[in-house]
Structures are given as C-alpha cells and as structure tokens.
Amino acid sequence: MPDPEDAAEQIAGLLDGIVRRQRRASREGFGESVTHGQFRVLRTLHRADRLLRLSELAALLDIVPRSATSVVDDLETAGLVARQPDPYDRRATLVYLTPDGLKILSTLREKRRDVMAGQLARLTADEQQTLAALLQRLAEE
C-alpha cells in the first residue's frame, strides 16, 4: 500500500505541473505582459460585474491592499483597467475593466480553455466526469 504522504506529494507535483503548463500556454502571444496575478485581478473585476473599491478587490483576492494597488497600477498603465473616484467616499477609488482589459481577459480564458480541452481529450467522457467530481470535492473548503 502506498504511503499517503508519497501520494500527497505526487498529486501536488502533478497538479503544479498541470497548472504551470496551462498558464504558460494561455500566455502565448502575450509574452509576460499579463501575469497570473494580473489575470486574477481582471477575472475578479469581471466576475464582480460592478466597480470595486481597491479594498474590496484586495479582500476578494485575499491579498493586502498595497499589493492590489501595485497590480492595478500596472494594469492601468497597460490600459486594461481604469480608476475613478468613489462618489460616496472621497477617500476611496473604484476600479473597473476597460474594453481592452475585457478583450484580453476573454482571449486568455479562451486559450486556457483550449489548453485544458487538449489535455482532457486524452480521457474518456466518464473519466473527465470523474476527474471533475474529484477536483470539486478537493476544492470544497
């Protein structure tokens, strides 16, 4: 019977490799212009479906506000997000996706989906369903 610690290490390594491969492939054509952290910000802003305060964005990303500010600074410089003052709180700033940000997010998601579809093509439909169910169980908190 395999040692549970060895199985955990093996699974962690396999998952890390799959994620790295997917990130690398989804960035093709963008070079290093959009990091994984920046992708998370774009995705979070899109999912929010409203303007977010920087503090809200940081909380949703589970990062410190200063880190969120740095990532937003870079994305704003690239024209992918924009800021505007919060009309209800002069101390706060709201962040939102620009049309260019939405376009890049859509392209990155499509590439990511294509890469995963290519990897999943090696599995039968039943295996894909089993894998999805197992990953869902592991993802639950």
From TrEMBL:
InterPro entries: HTH_MarR-typ, MarR/SlyA-like, Tscrpt_reg_MarR-type_CS, WH-like_DNA-bd_sf, WH_DNA-bd_sf. Residues 8-140 form the HTH marR-type domain. Coiled coil: none annotated. Keywords: DNA-binding, Transcription, Transcription regulation. One of its GO terms (molecular function) is DNA-binding transcription factor activity. One of its GO terms (biological process) is response to stress. This is MarR family transcriptional regulator. It holds the Pfam family MarR.
